[in-house]
Amino acid sequence: MRVAVTVQHPGHVHFFKHAIDELEARGHEVHVFAREKEMAVRLLELYGIEHEVLAGESHGLASLAAVQATYELRLLRRARELNPDVIAAIGGVAAAHVAPLVGARSVVFYDTEHATIIKNLAYPFAHTVCTPSCYVGDIGPKQVRYPGYHELAYLHPDRFTPDPTVRSDLGLDEGDSFVVTRFNDWGSSHDMGQSGFDDVGEVVDRLSETGAKVFVTAEMELSNDIEGHRLDLSPERMHDLLYYADCYVGEGATTAAECAMLGTPAVYVNSLSLGYVSELADEYGLVYSCNGPDRHRNALSHAVDILEGRGGGADAWRARRDRLLSERVDVTDVIVDQVESAGGGSDSRQKLTA
Question: CATH code at 86?
Answer without folding.
Answer: 3.40.50.2000
